[in-house]
Amino acid sequence: MSQHKLMVGTRGSALALWQTGHVVERLQALAPDLQVEVKTIQTLGDEVRDRALARVGGKGLFVKEIEAALLAEEIDLAVHSLKDMPTELPEGLCLAAILERADPHDALVVAEGPGHLEGLPPGARVGTSSLRRQAQLLALRPDLRVVDVRGNVDTRLRKLRDGEADALLLAAAGLVRLGRAEAIGQILPADRMLPAVGQGALCVEVRSNDERTQALVGQLDHRATHQATDAERAFLRRLEGGCQVPIGAYAEVSAGTLYLRGLVASLDGSRLLRDEIHGPAGHAARLGTELAEKLLAAGAGALLDEIERNQAT
Questions:
Q1: Which DSSP string corresponds to 26-47?
Q2: Per-residue DSSP letters for 144-168?
Q3: In a 3-state reduction of DSSP, which class is residue 191?
Q4: Which of 30, 47, 206, 269 could anchor a disulfide with 139, C-beta 3.0 to 4.6 Å?
Q5: pLDDT at 45
């Protein structure tokens, strides 16, 4: 792949640039002559700071503008956090690789005092812009107050220091990637706080007809992570939920068997529908759909419809 040059698209946050740099390093290790240029692209999710994400729009808030550049051939590939990706991609685009997953769990960051959920005083303000985190947090501690805290990781940590919240819920992977692991007070296990679909995984999106780039990028694909996240994304697709609904899912693959847990919750955490399923990892998408069907049969559809009506008002 001598003198092959690639234009890589990414958001401009410190975390997005770290993720892109990580992928570029991996690609250049595979193709030492590869020339890479990085183009930062601002997305709607980056631009809108005065409204909760749930009221801006559900799907693709952090990827649509990047995908438009990819389709217009202004860039050759895009690096995303998989949890930001809609379950349906635009025609002409595909995910050439899903990299091995980092820690998928959520982390609690506390301004002062004991660094764990049980140590927060009644009425403590916990910052998050995620309805999934909000619902599960209130299910565990209904006495806490949830405040909307937006921005990149450093911005949120600064808001914590400035007293806008007493604690934050953030993705553990992002904190570790940015060298902020020391801020983590507690990792919340999946049985207490089910992660977002795809959380902790990076993906690389390319044009479907760009076989050369696909062949190079495809070498970064991690099979077990791809299978696990295929199940999670199929679960989310069947529920027709975007990133701004309280849906969680987490799959693990062991010895060829995939284990998937899923959750749909009310915004106030008073109702949590949970279930799980397992089966051959080669049938990942089917398992995800089957688990969604189980939750729909248990009332998840009515719960999601109610949330959608509340967001529309």
A1: HHHHH-TT-EEEEEE---HHHH
A2: SEEE---S-HHHHHHHHHTTS-SEE
A3: coil
A4: 269
A5: 62
List the CATH code of the domain at 106-188. Answer: 3.40.190.10
The per-residue pLDDT for 56 is 47
The pLDDT value given to residue 306: 86
Q: What are the per-10-residue average pLDDT scores of the chain (313 residues)?
A: 78 95 97 96 65 54 91 97 94 98 98 90 95 97 95 92 96 96 96 97 98 97 98 95 80 98 96 97 98 97 86 68
Locate 299 and state its tokens. 């009332």
Whole-number Å distance between alpha carbons of 160 and 158: 5
Among 129, 257, 119, which residue's Cα sits nearest to residue 196? Answer: 129
In CATH, which superfamily holds the domain spanning 223-313? Porphobilinogen deaminase, C-terminal domain (3.30.160.40)
Judge whether 1-99+201-221 and 106-188 match in fold: yes
- CA–CA dist 195, 261 (Å, integer): 10
84 part of the active site: yes
76, 84, 166, 230: which one is catalytic?
Answer: 84
1-99+201-221: which CATH topology? Answer: D-Maltodextrin-Binding Protein; domain 2 (3.40.190)
pTM above 0.85, yes or no: yes
**Gap between the Cα atoms of 204 and 65, Å rounded:** 15
